[in-house]
TrEMBL record:
Native source species: Paenibacillus glucanolyticus
AB hydrolase-1 domain mapped to chain residues: 80-206
Pfam families documented for this protein: Abhydrolase_1
Domain of life (superkingdom): Bacteria
GO CC, any one term: membrane
Ranges annotated as spanning the membrane: 21-42
Gene3D superfamilies the UniProt entry points to: alpha/beta hydrolase
Keyword Acetylation: no
Designated name of the protein: Alpha/beta hydrolase
Keyword Zinc: no
GO MF, one example: hydrolase activity
Amino acid sequence: MTQPEEKKAKIGSRARKVRNIILKILGAIVIAIVLFLGIVYITNVISSNSEAKKIEPYGQHVSVDGKNMNVFIQGEGKETIVLLPGYGTAAPALDFKLLIDELSPFYKVVAVEPFGYGLSDGTEKERTAENIVSEVHEALQQLNINKYMLMGHSIAGIYGIDYVNKYPDEVTAFVGIDSSVPTQPGIDAKLPTKMFGFIKKSGLQRLVVKFGGDPYAGLPFDDHTVEQMKMLSNKNSNSSTMLNEMDHISSNFKGAQGLTFPKDLPLLLFVQGNNEDVLGWIPLHEGQIKDSVHGKVITMDGEHYLHHTLFKEIAEDVRTFMNEAK
Protein backbone atom coordinates (compact mmCIF):
# COMPACT_ATOMS: atom_id res chain seq x y z
CA MET A 1 0.00 0.00 0.00
CA THR A 2 1.41 3.37 -0.99
CA GLN A 3 1.77 6.16 1.55
CA PRO A 4 -1.16 8.19 0.15
CA GLU A 5 -3.35 5.09 0.21
CA GLU A 6 -2.34 4.34 3.79
CA LYS A 7 -3.14 7.91 4.83
CA LYS A 8 -6.51 7.72 3.12
CA ALA A 9 -7.31 4.43 4.88
CA LYS A 10 -6.49 5.94 8.28
CA ILE A 11 -8.74 8.95 7.59
CA GLY A 12 -11.54 6.61 6.53
CA SER A 13 -11.09 4.50 9.66
CA ARG A 14 -11.20 7.61 11.83
CA ALA A 15 -14.35 8.83 10.09
CA ARG A 16 -16.05 5.47 10.69
CA LYS A 17 -15.15 5.62 14.38
CA VAL A 18 -16.55 9.15 14.68
CA ARG A 19 -19.70 8.10 12.82
CA ASN A 20 -20.14 5.08 15.06
CA ILE A 21 -19.72 7.21 18.17
CA ILE A 22 -22.29 9.72 16.89
CA LEU A 23 -24.72 6.91 16.04
CA LYS A 24 -24.29 5.41 19.50
CA ILE A 25 -24.91 8.78 21.13
CA LEU A 26 -28.01 9.38 18.98
CA GLY A 27 -29.20 5.85 19.74
CA ALA A 28 -28.73 6.43 23.46
CA ILE A 29 -30.67 9.70 23.22
CA VAL A 30 -33.54 8.00 21.35
CA ILE A 31 -33.64 5.17 23.91
CA ALA A 32 -33.62 7.71 26.76
CA ILE A 33 -36.50 9.65 25.17
CA VAL A 34 -38.51 6.47 24.59
CA LEU A 35 -37.91 5.33 28.18
CA PHE A 36 -38.84 8.79 29.49
CA LEU A 37 -42.07 8.90 27.49
CA GLY A 38 -42.86 5.34 28.54
CA ILE A 39 -42.42 6.18 32.21
CA VAL A 40 -44.49 9.37 31.82
CA TYR A 41 -47.25 7.47 30.01
CA ILE A 42 -47.43 4.65 32.58
CA THR A 43 -47.32 7.11 35.47
CA ASN A 44 -50.18 9.07 33.91
CA VAL A 45 -52.31 5.95 33.44
CA ILE A 46 -51.75 4.86 37.04
CA SER A 47 -52.38 8.37 38.39
CA SER A 48 -55.52 8.82 36.28
CA ASN A 49 -56.98 5.53 37.53
CA SER A 50 -56.16 6.49 41.10
CA GLU A 51 -57.66 9.98 40.77
CA ALA A 52 -60.83 8.64 39.15
CA LYS A 53 -61.59 6.92 42.48
CA LYS A 54 -60.94 10.12 44.45
CA ILE A 55 -63.14 12.48 42.42
CA GLU A 56 -66.26 13.13 44.48
CA PRO A 57 -69.70 13.51 42.90
CA TYR A 58 -71.63 16.76 43.15
CA GLY A 59 -74.82 17.95 41.52
CA GLN A 60 -77.11 15.66 39.55
CA HIS A 61 -77.05 13.95 36.18
CA VAL A 62 -79.59 14.88 33.52
CA SER A 63 -80.10 12.75 30.41
CA VAL A 64 -79.39 14.67 27.20
CA ASP A 65 -78.97 12.88 23.86
CA GLY A 66 -78.59 9.61 25.74
CA LYS A 67 -75.65 10.91 27.78
CA ASN A 68 -75.29 12.34 31.27
CA MET A 69 -74.93 16.08 31.72
CA ASN A 70 -74.05 17.21 35.23
CA VAL A 71 -75.95 20.12 36.78
CA PHE A 72 -75.26 21.63 40.20
CA ILE A 73 -78.05 23.55 41.95
CA GLN A 74 -77.73 25.65 45.10
CA GLY A 75 -80.18 28.11 46.67
CA GLU A 76 -83.95 28.38 46.76
CA GLY A 77 -84.59 31.95 45.61
CA LYS A 78 -87.63 32.81 43.52
CA GLU A 79 -85.42 33.95 40.64
CA THR A 80 -83.02 31.58 38.90
CA ILE A 81 -79.52 32.19 37.59
CA VAL A 82 -78.01 29.72 35.11
CA LEU A 83 -74.20 29.72 34.99
CA LEU A 84 -72.21 28.70 31.91
CA PRO A 85 -68.42 28.23 31.95
CA GLY A 86 -65.64 29.59 29.79
CA TYR A 87 -63.78 27.30 27.41
CA GLY A 88 -61.58 24.72 29.10
CA THR A 89 -62.88 25.29 32.64
CA ALA A 90 -62.45 21.70 33.79
CA ALA A 91 -64.87 21.76 36.74
CA PRO A 92 -67.39 24.60 36.25
CA ALA A 93 -69.53 24.03 39.35
CA LEU A 94 -66.43 24.09 41.56
CA ASP A 95 -64.81 26.93 39.62
CA PHE A 96 -67.94 29.06 40.22
CA LYS A 97 -68.20 27.97 43.88
CA LEU A 98 -67.16 31.30 45.42
CA LEU A 99 -69.67 33.19 43.28
CA ILE A 100 -72.39 30.60 43.82
CA ASP A 101 -72.00 30.93 47.59
CA GLU A 102 -72.55 34.70 47.28
CA LEU A 103 -75.56 34.42 44.97
CA SER A 104 -77.38 31.42 46.45
CA PRO A 105 -78.83 33.21 49.52
CA PHE A 106 -80.87 35.32 47.07
CA TYR A 107 -81.26 33.17 43.96
CA LYS A 108 -81.61 29.61 42.82
CA VAL A 109 -78.24 29.11 41.13
CA VAL A 110 -77.87 26.45 38.46
CA ALA A 111 -74.36 25.63 37.20
CA VAL A 112 -74.55 23.63 33.98
CA GLU A 113 -71.53 21.56 32.99
CA PRO A 114 -71.68 21.05 29.20
CA PHE A 115 -70.48 17.77 27.72
CA GLY A 116 -66.76 17.35 28.29
CA TYR A 117 -66.79 19.54 31.39
CA GLY A 118 -66.84 18.68 35.09
CA LEU A 119 -68.67 15.43 35.78
CA SER A 120 -70.56 15.40 32.48
CA ASP A 121 -69.96 12.75 29.85
CA GLY A 122 -67.92 13.47 26.77
CA THR A 123 -69.55 13.36 23.36
CA GLU A 124 -68.65 12.70 19.73
CA LYS A 125 -71.22 15.24 18.56
CA GLU A 126 -69.63 18.30 16.94
CA ARG A 127 -69.07 21.16 19.38
CA THR A 128 -70.85 23.80 17.35
CA ALA A 129 -72.54 26.66 19.17
CA GLU A 130 -75.87 25.33 17.90
CA ASN A 131 -75.32 21.90 19.47
CA ILE A 132 -73.95 23.24 22.75
CA VAL A 133 -76.83 25.70 23.15
CA SER A 134 -79.40 23.04 22.30
CA GLU A 135 -77.91 20.58 24.82
CA VAL A 136 -77.81 23.12 27.65
CA HIS A 137 -81.40 24.09 26.93
CA GLU A 138 -82.49 20.45 26.93
CA ALA A 139 -80.86 19.93 30.34
CA LEU A 140 -82.78 22.89 31.76
CA GLN A 141 -86.01 21.62 30.23
CA GLN A 142 -85.47 18.26 31.90
CA LEU A 143 -85.25 20.10 35.22
CA ASN A 144 -88.36 22.21 34.49
CA ILE A 145 -86.30 25.40 34.58
CA ASN A 146 -88.12 27.69 32.18
CA LYS A 147 -87.37 31.24 33.37
CA TYR A 148 -83.89 32.38 34.30
CA MET A 149 -81.10 34.90 34.05
CA LEU A 150 -78.21 33.58 31.94
CA MET A 151 -74.74 34.32 33.31
CA GLY A 152 -71.65 33.20 31.43
CA HIS A 153 -67.88 33.48 31.55
CA SER A 154 -65.59 34.01 28.55
CA ILE A 155 -66.72 32.01 25.48
CA ALA A 156 -70.17 31.67 27.06
CA GLY A 157 -70.63 35.17 25.63
CA ILE A 158 -70.67 33.53 22.18
CA TYR A 159 -73.00 30.72 23.17
CA GLY A 160 -75.05 33.15 25.25
CA ILE A 161 -75.81 35.57 22.42
CA ASP A 162 -77.04 32.61 20.37
CA TYR A 163 -79.00 31.25 23.32
CA VAL A 164 -80.92 34.44 24.15
CA ASN A 165 -81.98 34.83 20.52
CA LYS A 166 -83.19 31.22 20.33
CA TYR A 167 -85.08 31.27 23.64
CA PRO A 168 -86.14 34.90 24.24
CA ASP A 169 -89.22 33.91 26.25
CA GLU A 170 -87.11 32.07 28.82
CA VAL A 171 -84.10 34.34 29.42
CA THR A 172 -84.81 37.33 31.67
CA ALA A 173 -81.32 38.90 31.46
CA PHE A 174 -77.77 38.16 30.34
CA VAL A 175 -74.74 38.74 32.54
CA GLY A 176 -71.27 38.36 31.07
CA ILE A 177 -68.16 37.74 33.16
CA ASP A 178 -65.38 39.00 30.90
CA SER A 179 -67.42 37.41 28.14
CA SER A 180 -66.20 36.95 24.58
CA VAL A 181 -67.44 39.25 21.81
CA PRO A 182 -68.12 37.82 18.32
CA THR A 183 -66.11 40.56 16.59
CA GLN A 184 -63.05 40.49 18.85
CA PRO A 185 -59.71 40.15 17.02
CA GLY A 186 -57.54 37.03 17.04
CA ILE A 187 -60.23 34.39 16.51
CA ASP A 188 -58.78 33.21 13.19
CA ALA A 189 -55.62 31.83 14.77
CA LYS A 190 -55.12 28.14 13.94
CA LEU A 191 -54.83 26.16 17.15
CA PRO A 192 -52.58 23.04 17.33
CA THR A 193 -55.23 20.60 18.50
CA LYS A 194 -53.27 17.52 17.36
CA MET A 195 -50.29 18.57 19.45
CA PHE A 196 -52.54 19.17 22.46
CA GLY A 197 -54.07 15.74 21.92
CA PHE A 198 -50.61 14.12 21.93
CA ILE A 199 -49.62 16.00 25.09
CA LYS A 200 -52.81 14.73 26.74
CA LYS A 201 -52.51 11.08 25.68
CA SER A 202 -48.77 10.83 26.33
CA GLY A 203 -49.11 12.04 29.91
CA LEU A 204 -46.90 15.07 29.29
CA GLN A 205 -49.84 17.30 30.21
CA ARG A 206 -49.78 16.00 33.78
CA LEU A 207 -46.04 16.69 33.93
CA VAL A 208 -46.47 20.25 32.66
CA VAL A 209 -49.25 20.92 35.16
CA LYS A 210 -47.25 19.41 38.02
CA PHE A 211 -44.19 21.58 37.45
CA GLY A 212 -46.07 24.64 36.20
CA GLY A 213 -47.42 27.39 38.41
CA ASP A 214 -50.39 26.68 40.67
CA PRO A 215 -53.40 28.47 39.08
CA TYR A 216 -55.21 28.50 42.42
CA ALA A 217 -52.38 29.90 44.53
CA GLY A 218 -53.55 32.81 46.65
CA LEU A 219 -57.24 32.29 45.81
CA PRO A 220 -59.81 31.78 48.58
CA PHE A 221 -60.75 28.21 47.59
CA ASP A 222 -60.43 25.61 50.33
CA ASP A 223 -57.77 22.92 49.87
CA HIS A 224 -60.28 20.15 49.22
CA THR A 225 -61.96 22.07 46.38
CA VAL A 226 -58.58 22.86 44.84
CA GLU A 227 -57.59 19.19 44.96
CA GLN A 228 -60.84 18.18 43.24
CA MET A 229 -60.45 20.85 40.56
CA LYS A 230 -56.89 19.75 39.82
CA MET A 231 -57.94 16.11 39.42
CA LEU A 232 -60.82 17.09 37.13
CA SER A 233 -58.43 19.26 35.16
CA ASN A 234 -56.14 16.26 34.60
CA LYS A 235 -59.20 14.30 33.47
CA ASN A 236 -60.92 16.84 31.21
CA SER A 237 -58.31 19.22 29.83
CA ASN A 238 -57.56 18.53 26.16
CA SER A 239 -59.99 15.62 26.03
CA SER A 240 -61.38 14.75 22.60
CA THR A 241 -64.57 16.68 23.40
CA MET A 242 -62.63 19.76 24.50
CA LEU A 243 -60.39 19.63 21.45
CA ASN A 244 -63.38 19.32 19.15
CA GLU A 245 -64.76 22.49 20.72
CA MET A 246 -61.38 24.14 20.21
CA ASP A 247 -61.57 23.23 16.52
CA HIS A 248 -64.92 25.03 16.31
CA ILE A 249 -63.91 28.21 18.16
CA SER A 250 -63.27 30.26 15.02
CA SER A 251 -66.44 29.12 13.23
CA ASN A 252 -68.52 29.60 16.38
CA PHE A 253 -67.29 33.19 16.70
CA LYS A 254 -67.96 33.89 13.03
CA GLY A 255 -71.41 32.36 13.28
CA ALA A 256 -72.30 34.78 16.07
CA GLN A 257 -71.12 37.90 14.25
CA GLY A 258 -74.54 38.55 12.78
CA LEU A 259 -76.22 38.36 16.19
CA THR A 260 -76.95 41.07 18.75
CA PHE A 261 -78.50 40.95 22.19
CA PRO A 262 -82.23 41.83 22.08
CA LYS A 263 -82.75 45.54 22.85
CA ASP A 264 -85.24 44.90 25.64
CA LEU A 265 -83.11 42.24 27.38
CA PRO A 266 -81.34 43.54 30.52
CA LEU A 267 -77.63 43.23 29.73
CA LEU A 268 -74.86 43.48 32.34
CA LEU A 269 -71.24 42.96 31.31
CA PHE A 270 -68.40 42.67 33.80
CA VAL A 271 -65.22 43.43 31.88
CA GLN A 272 -61.55 43.10 32.78
CA GLY A 273 -60.31 46.69 32.81
CA ASN A 274 -56.64 45.87 32.33
CA ASN A 275 -56.83 43.43 29.39
CA GLU A 276 -53.82 44.12 27.18
CA ASP A 277 -54.18 40.99 25.05
CA VAL A 278 -57.30 41.95 23.08
CA LEU A 279 -57.30 45.30 21.30
CA GLY A 280 -60.30 47.46 22.22
CA TRP A 281 -61.60 45.02 24.83
CA ILE A 282 -63.73 47.57 26.71
CA PRO A 283 -65.09 49.37 23.59
CA LEU A 284 -66.11 45.98 22.17
CA HIS A 285 -68.37 45.41 25.16
CA GLU A 286 -69.64 48.97 25.17
CA GLY A 287 -70.70 48.36 21.58
CA GLN A 288 -72.79 45.39 22.72
CA ILE A 289 -74.88 47.47 25.13
CA LYS A 290 -75.23 50.68 23.08
CA ASP A 291 -78.71 49.78 21.77
CA SER A 292 -79.85 48.05 24.96
CA VAL A 293 -82.76 49.61 26.85
CA HIS A 294 -81.16 48.48 30.10
CA GLY A 295 -77.49 47.76 29.51
CA LYS A 296 -74.41 48.38 31.62
CA VAL A 297 -70.67 47.71 31.45
CA ILE A 298 -68.75 47.45 34.72
CA THR A 299 -64.96 47.40 34.40
CA MET A 300 -63.05 45.51 37.07
CA ASP A 301 -59.36 45.23 37.94
CA GLY A 302 -58.60 41.52 37.97
CA GLU A 303 -57.64 38.50 35.91
CA HIS A 304 -59.82 36.97 33.18
CA TYR A 305 -61.49 34.76 35.80
CA LEU A 306 -62.98 37.79 37.56
CA HIS A 307 -65.25 35.58 39.66
CA HIS A 308 -62.25 34.03 41.43
CA THR A 309 -61.39 37.25 43.25
CA LEU A 310 -64.30 39.68 42.75
CA PHE A 311 -67.18 37.30 43.49
CA LYS A 312 -68.61 39.50 46.25
CA GLU A 313 -68.65 42.59 44.03
CA ILE A 314 -70.15 40.67 41.10
CA ALA A 315 -72.94 39.23 43.25
CA GLU A 316 -73.78 42.62 44.74
CA ASP A 317 -73.76 44.37 41.36
CA VAL A 318 -75.99 41.68 39.85
CA ARG A 319 -78.58 42.17 42.58
CA THR A 320 -78.49 45.95 42.23
CA PHE A 321 -78.72 45.80 38.45
CA MET A 322 -81.64 43.37 38.42
CA ASN A 323 -83.56 45.43 40.97
CA GLU A 324 -83.09 48.50 38.77
CA ALA A 325 -84.17 46.57 35.67
CA LYS A 326 -87.52 45.54 37.14
